[in-house]
Amino acid sequence: MDATPPWLTQEQQAAWDGFIRMQEKLIGRLARKVQADSRMSAADYIVLAKLTEAGGRMRFMDLTKLVEWEKSRMSHQVGRMVKRGLVAKEECPDDGRGAFVVATPAGYQAIEDAAPLHVEHVRRLFIDALTEDELATIARISARVLDHLEKQPD
């Protein structure tokens, strides 16, 4: 018989619940703003943002890992974006099974149009709510949790 897990204390549960609620509300609001402002989904935005930040061309699996998605989700997303002309797929010459995802001129234009509005919303909804010290604390906490996650089995 398995032992009972160590349940969260009231303070731990409040911290976790608050974090999840804040994250879901913030991401949901930003996703709706991106859609309304640019007619791109939040998934379109994240793929184009990461792709263009990396120079506009990435191996499919590297992009998949970067955004922490399943391979099938990325495949469907890239397929939709190819149909709309935002990205193209190129075969990898040194790996017959691999592929590159490449931002097209239309993809570059879409992210260039959407990014200033997105940053404006991030500032209004998140940055402006916090002091510089609080932002620094969130940055340290985020880095610490991310570092911890890298050490944990998936």
> Ends: how far apart?
25 Å
* CATH superfamily annotation: Winged helix-like DNA-binding domain superfamily/Winged helix DNA-binding domain
Quickly count the domains: 1
Q: Please tally the β strands and state the result.
A: 3
Structural class: mainly alpha
Instruction: List unreliable stretches of 5+ residues.
Output: none
What coarse outline follows from CA principal-axis ratios?
globular
Q: How much helix, percentage-wise, in residues?
A: 55-70%
Order of H and E elements: HHEHHEEHH
The main pleated sheet reads as:
3 strands, antiparallel
Report mean pLDDT, rounded to a whole number: 94
Beta content comes to 5-15%
Main sheet: strand order = 1-3-2
Keywords summarizing the entry:
154 residues; mainly alpha; Arc Repressor Mutant, subunit A; three-stranded antiparallel beta sheet; 6 helices; 3 strands; globular; MarR family transcriptional regulator; HTH_MarR-typ; MarR/SlyA-like
Question: Helices, strands, pairings?
Answer:
Blueprint: H1 10-38, H2 42-53, E1 57-59, H3 60-66, H4 71-83, E2 87-92, E3 95-103, H5 105-125, H6 132-150
Antiparallel strand pairs: 1-3, 2-3
Helix pairs in contact: 1-5, 2-5
Describe the protein.
The protein has a single domain (32-150), classed as Winged helix-like DNA-binding domain superfamily/Winged helix DNA-binding domain (Arc Repressor Mutant, subunit A, Orthogonal Bundle). Helix content is 66%, strand content 12%. It is built from 6 helices and 3 strands. It has helices at residues 10-38, 42-53, 60-66, 71-83, 105-125, 132-150, and strands at residues 57-59, 87-92, 95-103. The protein has a 3-stranded antiparallel beta sheet with strand order 1-3-2. Helix 1 packs across helix 5 (105-125) and helix 2 (42-53) crosses helix 5 (105-125). It is globular. 14% of the residues are buried. The model has no long low-confidence stretch (mean pLDDT 94).
